[in-house]
Write a structure and sequence with these properties.
alpha+beta; five-stranded antiparallel β-sheet; 21 strands; elongated
């Protein structure tokens, strides 16, 4: 029997029934919510607790296919946690978030527990001599006794209550970690402590599976990474832990509806407005979940013909600058930490050779075969066991892929209103620019319409500061008092002394984009990004890359009133020096660029941005951040200013 392709079937259904005018082969417009027919799943899905597509620890795959050098590296990291106590985190540390907004103290201890478990389990899989089993059992008992598995920032009260199981992304991720632990090591664990795996399954069901399936959850229809991240974890736990067929089918039906809601709301260009750092847990988790579903249905379904999913997958390399740095708007770091354990499975499912080859490039750069444990531990706040296992299951295919770094010459994401351009195709040499429009109510928004970044030879000159340390303020009404979220600390003008404002109505308009062999140009009017008191009729910003030469920015404006001199702000890292005669040197420690402007039009000022945010310091390798202010001398209502970087 020829299996029905799951998402192809769903897309076909929407196309032919609900959207009859949509042409086949095109990206499907945002569809309405729909009920999925569970009978299709019932034909192909593995029965409860019979999912077996990934080899368990006792199978020789891990000791024959995975190279010895990699196994040794995983084991070395596991040895760091051997015999380490599983100490309870004090309740008062959990309560600290509600008292003063600090989330980092609890999270440091919390993430370390997951890191401990993830490394012990991977070490045991690779060695399989049971020396790590006692520590893993102690870990399982620790998590079973812990009243709640999520973070204080996502809990309604000061202290967690075992009877109030809120489902958040980290409650889900912990359930995922424990589910894959007992999947991989069930027999070995049971030999040492009879019943430990069943107790763990029961806790996963009580804390995660039941409330996810039976309670109304805000994330089920969310457009943010909560939806896809939790659904991916939910799917794993259903496949491994759910014992009832009816519950299994109902849960997966709900998961598919949630993923469909996310996919329907996602822009057709595949752009992630949360920022590049969230791609792996937004679009990446969506595709990873569908990859897992494909495994659970014995490869019955395929997604490599879905153009929208392909766009979501290739977003990651479209924003790649070079040397694993990315165009980082919103809450993101330019060193986003994208790893092969997400790139390769996504690339393989979508049949995207560029993404698969990029996964191999990252692996080779970080000496994966010699330092697999190090790269495993570079996965965010702690190593993602399920992601690593899925990736390593494809290791034979991964070995055959050739290394290639993606260096796309031009990218235009029309929905996100984001463009990138470089001087030379497939080369890091020369200038690179990225800029964005959009609106100021995006997920993880910064007030940054018209913001641009400039790199030279894949090293930063003009930057986006990116995300800082998350606190309560990051997500409350005072978010835009944080310097890294304000437009005053982005590469946009302070017009009549007024910054941009947050909100859906504050958006770019009159967007134009062109590119050819000689240049790439983006132009947009950012006047509506500012409140009325800024008195702006028009502010058309044009960003032009002349390949092999320079980047020119033109500010063509018209004000209804003059209230205060307008200041064009540029953020840099490294060393900034006023040379004189309309020149500022920007030295990032590896190369330098020149900012050129007309002294008759603009008055320059350079200041250090003083801060002690550890996340920002780490992102920019402790380099000093500078703010260049170019004040427009003229008080006229209309004008045109031009400056360039070369």
């Amino acid at each position: 029997m020829k299996f029905i392709r799951l998402y192809s079937f769903l897309i076909l259904y929407i196309t032919t029934i609900l959207l009859p005018d949509t042409a086949m082969g095109q990206i499907i417009p945002t569809p309405p919510a729909r009920q999925y027919n569970k009978t299709i799943l019932d034909v192909n899905l593995a029965m409860p607790q019979q999912f077996s597509s990934i080899p368990t620890a006792r199978e020789i795959y891990w000791r024959t296919v995975i190279p010895e050098s990699m196994r040794k590296s995983y084991i070395q990291y596991g040895m760091r946690y051997k015999s380490k106590p599983w100490e309870t985190i004090p309740r008062q540390v959990f309560a600290e978030y509600k008292i003063n907004g600090n989330r980092s103290h609890y999270e440091k201890l919390y993430f370390e527990k997951r890191k401990q478990m993830g490394n012990l389990v991977m070490a045991e899989i690779m060695e399989h001599r049971e020396q790590f089993i006692p520590d893993i059992i102690n870990g399982l008992n620790y998590f079973i006794s812990d009243p709640w598995w999520g973070l204080p920032a996502h809990y309604p009260t000061n202290y967690p209550d075992k009877n109030n199981q809120v489902v958040d992304i980290f409650n889900a991720e912990t359930a995922n970690l424990l589910a894959w632990t007992i999947y991989m090591l069930n027999d070995e664990l049971e030999e040492k402590e009879n019943g430990i795996c069943e107790k763990t399954r029961n806790e996963i069901s009580r804390r995660f599976l039941i409330p996810s399936r039976t309670n109304k959850q805000h994330w089920k229809n969310s457009t943010s990474n909560w939806n896809t991240w939790i659904c991916e974890d939910w799917l794993s736990c259903v496949l491994i832990c759910e014992s009832n067929r009816s519950n299994q089918l109902e849960a997966i039906s709900q998961i598919l509806q949630s993923l469909d809601a996310f996919l329907a709301s996602y822009p057709n260009d595949g752009g992630c407005d949360e920022g590049i750092s969230y791609w792996d847990r937004a679009g990446g988790s969506l595709i990873e979940a569908l990859c897992l579903l494909n495994m659970a249905t014995h490869n019955a379904y395929s997604l490599d013909n879905n153009e929208k999913l392909k766009a979501i997958g290739n977003y990651i390399y479209k924003l790649h600058i070079g040397n694993n740095k990315f165009a980082n708007f919103a809450d993101a770091s330019h060193s986003a930490g994208i790893l092969p354990n997400i790139c390769f499975p996504v690339g393989k499912l979508l049949n995207d050779s560029i993404l698969m080859r990029y996964a191999k490039h990252i692996a080779n750069q970080y000496m994966f075969e010699q330092q697999a444990g190090k790269l495993y531990n570079a996965s965010g706040n702690y190593p993602f066991l399920s992601r690593e296992l899925l990736f390593l299951t494809y290791y034979r295919s991964f070995q055959d892929i050739q290394d290639a770094e993606p260096l796309i010459r031009d990218t235009w994401l029309s929905d996100l209103q984001l463009f990138t351009a470089r001087s030379l195709e497939n080369s890091k040499n020369g200038l690179y620019v990225a800029a964005k429009g959009g609106h100021n109510n995006e997920l993880h928004n910064h007030n940054d319409l018209g913001n641009f970044i400039i790199y030279k030879d894949a090293e930063p000159l003009i930057i986006d500061i990116g995300a800082g340390t998350y606190t309560a303020q990051t997500f409350n009404e005072d978010r835009y008092k944080l310097f890294n979220c304000r437009s005053a600390y982005h590469n946009v003008p302070l017009i009549n002394g007024i910054e941009q404002h947050e909100g859906q109505q504050y958006r770019a308009k009159n967007i134009k984009y062109t590119n050819n062999k000689k240049q790439a140009v983006m132009s947009l009017d950012i006047a509506e990004a500012y409140p009325q008191e800024a008195c702006i009729d028009r502010w058309q910003r044009t960003i032009q890359l002349i390949r092999g030469k320079k980047i020119t920015i033109t500010e063509d404006y018209k004000l209804s009133k003059f209230r205060s001199p307008t200041v064009i702000t540029l953020i840099c890292c490294g060393e900034v020096k006023l040379i004189g005669n309309g020149m500022i040197m920007i030295n990032n420690g590896k190369n330098q660029g020149l900012l050129l402007f007309d002294n008759n039009q603009l008055t320059p000022h350079v200041e250090i941005i003083h801060h002690q945010d550890p996340v920002i310091l780490n992102s920019w390798q402790n380099r000093t951040l500078f703010r260049i202010s170019l004040t427009i001398r003229s008080h006229a209502f209309e004008g045109k200013i031009q400056y360039s970087i070369e």
